[in-house]
Amino acid sequence: MVIGAALGxxxxxxxxxxxxxxxxxxxVLISLSTKDQPAKSVLQIIESYAHxxxxxxxxxxxxxxxxxxxxxxxxxxxxxxSGVVRIDEPGLFDSVRPSVNRLFSxxxxxxxxxxxxxxxxxxxxxxxxxxxxxxxxxxxxIVQDPDDAIASRMPWHVIRNDSPRYRAKGADISSLVQRLxxxxx
Length: 185
Prior knowledge:
Layout: E1 2-5, H1 9-17, E2 27-32, H2 39-49, E3 53-56, E4 67-70, E5 76-79, E6 85-88, H3 100-111, E7 116-119, H4 128-136, E8 140-144, H5 153-161, E9 166-168, H6 170-184
Parallel strand pairs: 1-2, 1-7, 2-4, 3-4, 7-8, 8-9
Antiparallel strand pairs: 5-6
């Protein structure tokens, strides 16, 4: 599962992760732009809610189920062909760091129909192409209802440029994900 978020997304992630069981049979990779918060604080906030292991993603690390991997600040998180974490330095002209599109497109290429992509609150124009790639690979796309998001730009951008399979309030995303995960097993 891959999640993209920015402004307001940390709150949504914490709420969603708080309901996932400790034995959740999938890995969660999060592209999260939190320019004003130190990575250590972001991890502590997610850890205080989540029952899964939470860590900052490390390049070359094997992706394992029941684990939440968070993008390092200002670096791109992706998935390597052999199911490992890839961390890329942003290019000079990369306007969004980390890039949700990069993570989502890489996950779609590696995991195909097994991917669930989620766009949460954010004030950036990112994620639409990655969601299209997930859907084209047979995966599932979920977008937080813009009226429910602290910052609605990312959800609206995805809705206008893609046709996500599900549009849900933040409080409903967790149960939806759990149902989808059970269906994919």
